[in-house]
């Protein structure tokens, strides 16, 4: 139970939700910068590009037209239709707009799905390392994230065998991300088919977070909907569309779940930002897509520079990330305390990284996440700074 300063108590659930540990690193970075130090930021979980100009212009035009009212719990019809066309052109899928709900970010979609699928005392399987908020959303609805330790042997993803091994009496489904945060690991069509088989055999739910779709650099990033029309998909305008601060995402649900989802969304959110939805419509215009595809190329170039450079520094990167903008590096040669190590690298060498403890428990003290959400020039500076320390002394 958590206490407030006045001595009153807060709920047990809030006491069990962890903060983002990287915040301590970021706060220190701000202090150092205020004192005149230069910090290379490799900790951000968002693109370093401003939202593309046509999207901003569409948002401004919508405001100019006075479109400032609530917009309905499922989102504006034009955006749901645009997404339906996007699934047709991008994946060859026929998804009715009625199955697409606009949400306040993927975060809103995760909250909705947690509330829809999980009873108190039930849980969903998820990877450790993985996106930490997933288990916290389940905690909020009195459920639990059932963390499955994963490593390079399963490409940091769940598979049919792991699902079979870890499924418990109170498990109701599997929640995965592809490409994943923090590993950039992508699930192939075969991988998705295997997960779907395992979940169906247990009459469970398969939820796939596809928020980093569009940011794949090698093979295709298939949608789970290509192999399982009953799966739930979470997605967002935050990453590929570069709209983190607009707070807009979506989810695709099976037809029989839509009415209940909408009821929940009415109660939880009433509506998403109307301006953000009108702005997002411009994300599908060819001119905007050209900008977004150029940005994807920039991310690929950064990845291709940083992965070998990180390995050269002495970190182990057993799986080349295929998507998102992260590298999950094994730092066990240097540390057993990822948080303290990140603070030291910042303090002594001006490089901000995210400690593994932000992504779960499994080997979390020995891992760090590098985000390549800064320019190639800044990445080079970071590598130079770290080469000086890690290369020569073998650690700090
Ligand atoms: C895997 C994953 N899912 C969901 C989110 C939440 O994104 P948003 O609410 O901005 O759409 C993030 C953000 O970093 C993420 O990495």
Keywords:
single chain, 396 residues, alpha/beta, Aspartate Aminotransferase, domain 1, Aspartate Aminotransferase, domain 2, three-stranded antiparallel β-sheet, 12 strands, binds pyridoxal-5'-phosphate
How are the SSEs placed, and which strands pair?
Layout: H1 12-15, H2 22-34, E1 40-41, H3 53-64, H4 77-91, E2 100-103, H5 105-117, E3 123-128, H6 133-140, E4 144-149, H7 160-166, E5 171-177, H8 189-201, E6 205-209, E7 232-236, E8 249-252, H9 258-269, H10 274-281, H11 286-312, E9 326-330, H12 338-349, E10 351-352, E11 354-355, E12 367-371, H13 376-393
Parallel strand pairs: 1-10, 3-4, 3-5, 5-6, 6-7
Antiparallel strand pairs: 2-8, 7-8, 9-12, 11-12
Helix pairs in contact: 2-12, 3-10, 5-6, 5-9, 7-8, 11-13
């Amino acid at each position: 139970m958590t206490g407030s300063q006045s001595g009153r108590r807060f709920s047990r659930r809030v006491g069990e939700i962890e903060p983002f540990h990287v915040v301590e690193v970021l706060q220190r970075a701000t202090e150092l910068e205020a004192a005149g130090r230069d910090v290379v930021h490799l900790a951000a979980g968002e693109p370093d590009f401003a939202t593309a100009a046509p999207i901003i212009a569409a948002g401004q035009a919508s405001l100019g037209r006075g479109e400032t009212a609530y917009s309905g719990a499922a989102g504006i019809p034009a955006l749901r239709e645009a997404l339906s066309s996007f699934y047709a052109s991008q994946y060859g899928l026929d998804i009715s707009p009625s199955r697409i709900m606009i949400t306040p970010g993927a975060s809103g979609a995760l909250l909705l799905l947690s509330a829809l699928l999980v009873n108190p005392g039930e849980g969903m399987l998820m990877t450790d390392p993985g996106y930490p908020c997933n288990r916290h959303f389940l905690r909020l609805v009195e459920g639990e994230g059932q963390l499955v330790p994963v490593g390079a042997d399963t490409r940091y993803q769940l598979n049919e065998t792991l699902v079979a091994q870890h499924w418990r009496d109170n498990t109701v489904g599997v929640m995965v991300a592809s490409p994943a945060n923090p590993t950039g690991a992508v699930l192939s069509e075969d991988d998705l088919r295997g997960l779907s088989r395992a979940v169906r055999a247990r009459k469970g739910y398969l939820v796939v977070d596809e928020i980093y779709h569009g940011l794949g650099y090698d093979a295709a990033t298939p949608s789970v909907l290509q192999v399982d029309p009953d799966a739930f998909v979470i997605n967002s305008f935050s990453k590929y569309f570069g709209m983190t601060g607009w707070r807009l995402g979506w989810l695709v649900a099976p037809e029989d779940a839509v009415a209940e989802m909408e009821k929940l969304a009415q109660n939880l959110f009433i509506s998403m930002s109307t301006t953000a939805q009108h702005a997002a419509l411009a994300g599908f215009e060819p001119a905007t897509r050209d900008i977004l595809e150029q940005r994807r190329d920039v991310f690929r170039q950064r990845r291709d520079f940083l992965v070998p450079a990180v390995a050269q520094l002495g970190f182990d990167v057993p799986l080349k990330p295929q998507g998102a903008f992260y590298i999950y590096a094994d730092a066990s040669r240097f540390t057993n305390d990822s948080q303290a190590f990140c603070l030291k690298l910042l303090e002594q060498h001006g490089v901000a990284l995210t400690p593994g403890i932000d992504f779960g428990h499994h080997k979390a003290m020995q891992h760090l996440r590098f985000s390549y959400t800064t320019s190639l020039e800044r990445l080079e500076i970071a590598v130079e700074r770290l080469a000086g320390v890690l290369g020569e002394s073998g650690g700090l």
